[in-house]
Amino acid sequence: MVFCATGLPLQSHHLIISLPMLTSLYVRHFAVVEAAEVAFGPGLTVVSGGTGAGKSLLVDALMLLAGARADSGMVRAGSDRAELAAEFDLADLPAARDWLQREELDEDGGCQLRRVIRAEGSSKAWINGRPANARQLGELAALLVEIHGQHEHQALLSRSHQLALLDAYAGHDDLLAQVRSSAVQWRELGARMRKLSGGDDRDRRIELLRHEIGELEKWALPPAELDELEANHKRLANAGRLAEGTAGVVELLDGDSEFALRRALGRAHAELGKLAALDDKLTPLLELLDNAGIELGEAADGLARYAQDVDLDPERYTEVDNHLARLHELSRRHRLPVAELHDRLAALHAELVELEGAGDALEQLAAQRQRLQDDYVSAAAGLSGARATAAARLGDEVSVLMAELGMAGGLLRVELEPAAGGEPDPQGLERCELLVSANPGQPPRPLRKVASGGELARISLAIEVATLGKDTVGSMIFDEVDTGIGGAVAEVVGQKLRALGTRRQVLCVTHLPQVAAQGHAHLRVSKHSDGDSTRTQIERLDAAGRRDELARMLGGVEITRETRAHAKQMLERAQTA
Q1: Among 71, 343, 436, 468, which residue's CB has the most CB atoms within a 10 Å radius?
Q2: Which segments does the entry list as coiled coil (predicted)?
Q3: Element at 475 (helix H, strand E)
């Protein structure tokens, strides 16, 4: 089954400007789903269905594709494996494209995540058709989707993500880049200074370098000389065979035997000379034999001289053999091919010069490092001020939104605390913690410690709306964000989700008609049984289907004309709001 969640036509002043990041999701033999493929469009897509129908299966599938732990209970009864796959459009996600390129998993600007879960409990995963591990799935998924609700996979619970979100909300990218650059360079210079001023370690290193340089200067050779040495070794090692062999070839060419080539060639020349006297056409061939005789004689003479001159010097062979043995020993010690030892000598020379001149170098590095630290302190102070201002503003905005979302008296406070250590840190002088209180009189607690899944989802929604368009994640998933609310608050939640859908792709699993009416597209999940097996079906609803589904959500199993009329009004109001 293939369903396209493209939604209803909108008025021109309500055009969706978000792009579809998650373009399709495919599941097969997953839980109670036999097979389904859903194509997603931009904006807010709502998912509804009866109790126990499996509305959250889409969310569960995405979480598994994001690296969540799998178990055999997720495989449909009677099947040997479950298959999940999702495709993403990365046109608006440069961070994800860069990650794929770094991991060498990129594929024409697109991205496909695939996972297979076997009935015995094992699973395998692929990114763009290449095998991937859970770490890779998690890192990539964090750049693609953000899941809010009663789940563990929530980027907003990470303190590093909270700080990044505050920085994005404040829009001080230049200050942050200055802080990061100064801190990184400061650390790099520190590493160089520690290497140069190593005390006893430095003295020992200098002594070792001098010893290694002395050995390499004695034995290491540039490429041309190394080739000549190896050729000499080969020649000296086989000197006896070369002398004996060349003498034997001379005997074959010009020896005393009647079968020697030069004697046979002489006989052939004499016989052809007689024939040439009878026919002039043979004269050119006779000249060829003349030339062959001359070349044969030169070859025999040359070989005879070579055989006499072959170096049978055992001492020279021992010297060359010892040189090569020392080279191979140095090769093992330096863990380099013999041919690269000469280049190693140059590198060790450079290091020795640097260490021996460490005094002047350290003074220069220390002065440079102090300038970097001054730059860091200045930029970090500016960043801290900007963060403090943005933190107060973000807290106020989210607190107002929390009240609108049914948490009257609740508040969010963005707490900044000094970073540990005191050295220049690429993230700045402070760390961030989002503290929330969902009800009046309750002290604010870290967002990651809020117990209620529904409250956490609505708080996350408030933060997302307040920071609309500030983070880089393309698709946001809200699972049962409307738990524990109803009436006007539910409609506000739906409106906020719809507003979020104008800037980001949003998928929301809901049981409230007020939220479902705000969707740009609507998927219905239903469960069917024939007595022997149970299947879940996912279908995209047209205008009439949406009206009937909202009527069901409003009035239960029995749908009346009044509930249909009410549902139609809700849809019309949402489309023109």
Answers
A1: 436
A2: 338-375
A3: strand 475-479
Tokens linked to 371: 């300038």
Q: How far apart are CA 347 and CA 334, in angstroms?
A: 12
Query: Which phi and psi (to 5°) does residue 250 adopt?
Result: -60, -40
* Calpha distance 33→83 (Å, rounded): 11
Q: Which residue, 487, 508, 492, is CA-closest to 46?
A: 508
pLDDT reading at 219 higher than 60: yes
Q: 563 by DSSP, 3-state: which?
A: helix
- Report, in angstroms and rounded to the nearest whole number, the Rg of the chain calculated over CA atoms: 40
Amino acid occupying residue 31? A
3-class DSSP assignment, residue 46 = strand
H helices then E strands: how many in the chain?
Answer: 18, 16
Residue 4: is its pLDDT beyond 70?
Answer: no
pLDDT band at 276 (very low <50, low <70, confident <90, very high): confident
| Matching residue, tokens 């939604």 | 7
> What distances in angstroms separate CA 536 from CA 1, 31, 287, 406, 477, one per listed residue?
11, 9, 97, 33, 20
Q: What is the dihedral of CA 251, 255, 259, 264, to 10 degrees?
A: 120
Residues 6+ apart with CB under 8 A from 571: 8, 517, 543, 546, 547, 550
Closest by Cα among 419, 413, 467 to 445: 413
| Full strand arrangement of the beta sheet holding 445-446 | 411-418, 430-437, 445-446
404: pLDDT confidence band, cut at 50, 70 and 90?
Answer: confident
pLDDT at 195: 74
C-alpha–C-alpha distance, residues 420 and 54, integer Å: 46
Taking residues 255-266, what's their average pLDDT? 84
Is residue 2 within 8 Å of residue 61, measured between CB atoms?
no
Q: What is the band of 262 on the pLDDT scale with cuts at 50, 70, 90?
A: confident
Q: Distance between CA 411 and CA 434 in Å, rounded?
A: 10
Instruction: Give the strand pairing for 145-148 and 475-479.
Output: parallel
pLDDT tops 80 at residue 17: no
Q: What number of residues does the chain have? A: 577
Closest by alpha carbon to 70, among 112, 125, 111?
125
Q: 444, 436 in Cβ contact below 8 A?
A: yes
Q: Give the model confidence (pLDDT) of 471-492 as tens digits.
A: 677 788 888 766 667 777 788 8
Pick from 93-97, 252-256, 346-350, 453-457: least confident? 453-457
Q: What single letter denotes the amino acid at residue 101?
A: Q
The alpha-helical segments, DSSP class H, found in 197-313 are 200-219, 223-237, 239-254, 261-278, 283-309
- Strands (E) across 494-550 are located at 505-509, 521-529, 534-540
Name the token pair of 437. 């209180």
Tell me the pLDDT band of 142, cut-offs 50, 70 and 90.
confident
List of long-range contacts for 311-319, beta carbons under 8 Å, 24+ apart: 311/235, 311/236, 311/239, 312/239, 312/240, 312/243, 313/236, 313/239, 316/236, 317/233, 317/236, 317/237, 317/239
Do strands 145-148 and 130-132 pair parallel, antiparallel, or not at all (unpaired)?
unpaired
Indicate the residue type of 269.
H
CA distance 443 to 87: 43
What is the residue type of 335?
A: R
